[in-house]
Amino acid sequence: EVQLVESGGGLVKPGGSLRLSCAASGFTFSSYSMNWVRQAPGKGLEWVSSITPGSNYIYYGDSVKGRFASSRDNAKNSLYLQMNSLRAEDTAVYYCARDNPSSTGTTDYWGQGTLVTVSS
Amino acid sequence: ETVLTQSPATLSVSPGERVTLSCRASQSVSSDLAWYQQNPGQPPRLLIYRASTRATGVPIRFSGSGSGTEFTLTIISLQSEDFVVYYCQQYNNWPYTFGQGTRLEIK
């Protein structure tokens, strides 16, 4: 069974940093692109980042480019999101999601998410 | 950035009816369009990809169509569990983007 479990969320002050983790199991993690998608409270979805299996290509949404860094450790079946210079508008539930092998760019499995709150 | 506009924002329909949700792209995304369903407090669930292909386990009452800039998601014979929020997403060009969502509510 595919499982994705995010952790590392919490309350952080504006300008602060946080590192999210996503532990994957039930599939060959090293063969899949992985993604971060976020959702502000009561709002819609926003694609944050995508990273290819070998970390050769990493993409970021415009609102986080230069502040967030996505990485992965295939030996540990883990995905990470380093978030720096956090702003109030980064407050959201952050989801880790697996790329759909039938149509890359879509996501077929999601974690339950971890809440990041940026507030003084 | 490709902007996706979903309409309407909220749709009031009765169980058992058929409904069509719309998603319009600000530029062509070919057939690189997906639909997701989201229950409250839950992550999204992939319904449709490549504009018209149902994801694994998705009931046949869900169907997608369209290409270029105009897309629709049709749900026939609405069930009680279908009254949630639906998002379209394009993956033709980076950054990938979502529409703002359409909420189905019981009339």
Explain how this protein is built:
The complex is a heterodimer of chains A (120) and B (107). Chain A has 120 residues and is mainly beta. Helix content of chain A is 0%, strand content 51%. Chain A is globular. The mean pLDDT of chain A is 97. By secondary structure, chain B is mostly beta strands. Chain B contains no helices and eleven strands. The mean pLDDT of chain B is 97. Chain A binds chain B through residues 37, 44-47, 50, 59-62, 95, 97, 100, 102-108, 110-113, and chain B through 1, 32, 34, 36, 38, 42-46, 49-50, 53, 55-56, 87, 89, 91-92, 94-101.
Q: β content of chain A, as a range?
A: over 45%
Low-confidence stretches of chain A: none
Computed CA radius of gyration of chain A, to the nearest angstrom: 13 Å
Q: Whole-number average pLDDT of chain A? A: 97
Main pleated-sheet profile of chain A? 7 strands, mixed
Structural class of chain A: mainly beta
Indicate the multimeric state. heterodimer
Topology diagram in text:
The complex is a heterodimer of chains A (120) and B (107).
Chain A: E1 3-7, E2 10-12, E3 18-25, E4 34-39, E5 45-51, E6 58-60, E7 68-73, E8 78-83, E9 92-99, E10 107-110, E11 114-118
Chain B: E1 4-7, E2 10-13, E3 19-25, E4 33-38, E5 45-49, E6 53-54, E7 62-67, E8 70-75, E9 85-90, E10 97-98, E11 102-106
Parallel strand pairs in B: 2-11
Antiparallel strand pairs in B: 1-3, 3-8, 4-5, 4-9, 5-6, 7-8, 9-10, 9-11
Keywords, separated by commas or semicolons:
heterodimer, A: 120 residues, mainly beta, seven-stranded mixed sheet, four-stranded antiparallel sheet, 11 strands, 0% helix, globular, B: 107 residues
